[in-house]
């Protein structure tokens, strides 16, 4: 009945693979693709070491940009590691952007956290289904790298944005009352980011098609917040230190929005770390 509360959706089926071989990963991707209910989307999250191409070719296709390493073990014969005879040979256990093309027959949402995440910018939407790739920075400032053993900063932004924001500001602890105030402020910021995305006239339709799902909507909003925060932070000066996406987001409407920059400076002031961020009203950058 209309006055009844909407039923909570069923928890989606998940596969968690640790350093799978290429064949294992492809088997599980195929199973996920087969099991996908109608009007659903396949979410693929890749967190792995980057594999870079040995040589640059004149013609570069979806298998020439490298990708991510799924399994770090080399082929072993009689207890001995088989060395590659030809260094130009491609890594067998690398997941290339081209390997995911068959799965774009259905809506696909990809998150890549890797030193070669940008390989997945070279995607082609062959089937016209909604497709979005969120890509991590490939280089972090040295002061941030020291903490990388505790986990990736990009993934932390997608999981707990305030914790990640505190981390790039060098805050190891925040008073409970202040933390709750900052969380409440972030909820307002996220509402504004949501409106920026839905009101943008130049945004790719794929982002809007995924926006109806509360989980993917949260990931997209946190991704925009992460991108904007790193752009304003004084330590993050290289373009490789910023997240990217395929298709590209309209920067002026989202990650470089003056309203969002104002919000980030307000949050920094609340946490008393405003000196770490560029303030356009005081200095140009």
What's the short story on this structure?
With 285 residues, the chain is an alpha/beta fold. It contains eight helices and nine strands.
- The ordered H/E elements are HEEEEEEEEHHHHHHEH
For the CA atoms, what is the radius of gyration? 21 Å
Main sheet: strand order: 1-7-8-9
Average pLDDT for all residues: 88
Amount of helix:
25-40%
Question: Strand pairing plus helix content: what structural class?
Answer: alpha/beta
Instruction: Please outline the major beta sheet.
Output: 4 strands, mixed
Strand content: 5-15%
Q: Could you give the distance between the termini?
A: 56 Å
| Overall 3D form | globular
Contiguous helical run count: 8
Poorly predicted regions: 76-86
Number of strands: 9
What does this structure look like?
- A 4-stranded mixed β-sheet has the order 1-7-8-9. The chain has a 3-stranded antiparallel β-sheet with strand order 2-3-6, with no helix packed on it. Strands 4-5 form a two-stranded antiparallel sheet.
- α3 packs across α7 and α5 crosses α7.
- The chain is globular, with a radius of gyration of 21 Å.
- With 285 residues, it is α/β, with parallel strands linked by helices.
Question: What tags apply to this protein structure?
Answer:
285 residues, alpha/beta, 11% strand
What's the topology here?
Blueprint: H1 22-35, E1 42-47, E2 50-51, E3 67-69, E4 76-77, E5 80-81, E6 94-95, E7 108-113, E8 131-135, H2 142-145, H3 153-159, H4 161-168, H5 176-199, H6 205-210, H7 214-232, E9 244-246, H8 258-270
Parallel strand pairs: 1-7, 7-8
Antiparallel strand pairs: 2-3, 3-6, 4-5, 8-9
Helix pairs in contact: 3-4, 3-7, 5-7, 5-8
Pfam family, one: SCAI
Organism: Xenotaenia resolanae
Protein name: Suppressor of cancer cell invasion
